[in-house]
Amino acid sequence: MGLLDGKVVIVTGAGRGIGRGEALECAAQGAAVVVAEFDPDAGDTVAKEIVGAGGRAVAVGGDVADAGVANSLVEAAVEEFGGLDALVNNAGILRDRTIAKMTDDDWDAVVRVHLRGHFLPTRAAVQYWRENKRPGHVVSTASTSGLLGNFGQTNYGAAKAGIAAFSTIVAMEGARAGITSNAIAPTALTRMTLDLMPEEWKRQRDAELERGGFDFFAPENVAPLVAYLCSDESSHISGKVFGVQGDSVEIFQPFTSVAEVTNGGRRWEPSELAGRIDGLFTASGIQPGPENMMDRMRYKIL
Ligand SMILES: NC(=O)c1ccc[n+]([C@@H]2O[C@H](COP(=O)([O-])OP(=O)(O)OC[C@H]3O[C@@H](n4cnc5c(N)ncnc54)[C@H](O)[C@@H]3O)[C@@H](O)[C@H]2O)c1
Hints:
This protein has 302 residues and is of the alpha/beta class. Helix content is 43%, strand content 15%. It folds into two domains: 8-251, NAD(P)-binding Rossmann-like Domain (Rossmann fold, 3-Layer(aba) Sandwich); 259-302, no CATH class. It is globular, with a radius of gyration of 21 Å. Strands 3-2-1-4-5-6-7-8 form an eight-stranded mixed β-sheet, sandwiched between helices. The structure holds nicotinamide-adenine-dinucleotide. Nicotinamide-adenine-dinucleotide binds at residues 12-13, 15-19, 36-39, 42, 63-65, 90-93, 113, 117, 141, 143, 186-188, 190-193, 219.
């Protein structure tokens, strides 16, 4: 018995990396999988791998930020496998530049793939679930780059923080219809991150793996949490943001107000704030200048 026996799951960007691991795990848990992938060869390879292992899968090529493609994913799930139970929004790209060097195209391409590429498949899935009075599960892919901020990633970080907010609001809107929506912030070594690693680091990792050590940052390690969040076992969990890597699952606190200054029921004079605003930093321990929140992560690759 698998966690997803008889279920149908769409995974976007499933041709490689984290999405490939998610597609294979959902299939191993009994789901039929719609493998949505921009690169048709990569998508076909994953679908064939699932079918070769005795599972059910179909590859759908194209850009998930295109409405026709996004809608066709739900149509493929219904036509090929008789319905849809979960959507995993995973497809993504990087175009890192500091803000001064960021081109319009760098900005638009990243925001489009991530935000529009989450919005369109989610809208199609939610419309299907509401029209058919069925419950459903959405898992979206945020990033610590958005939750915490990361140098050189204004486009990617803004999109990923937007995805966390998007997922939380889908959760609120879907609650009465039995639709859950959660987001993950994964860390894994994939095409997206491997190129960033120093050669010496890669050599040490290869040596550790040869000794039979746990491949902590293998992309497949993200998949068990995602399969669980796609299943009815997690129907009581919605609107949450989880960190996931290796054998670790974390939960992120939403942005939370932790200190306040008030002005005795009168509107502030801007100059009065100069004397009082530092009270917020004293009360909270938050630094007034920019902070590298990534330094506080439990797990990071670099
Ligand atoms: N690797 C990490 O450490 C890490 C950290 C945080 C977040 N993420 C996020 O996880 C997700 C997967 O990343 P990955 O590391 O596996 O990257 P990857 O590049 O290995 O895989 C991404 C896949 O998505 C596909 N894709 C890209 N744009 C697409 C589009 N418009 N339509 C359909 N498919 C598209 C690519 O062809 C590729 O197969 C991304 O959303 C990424 O931002 C990754």
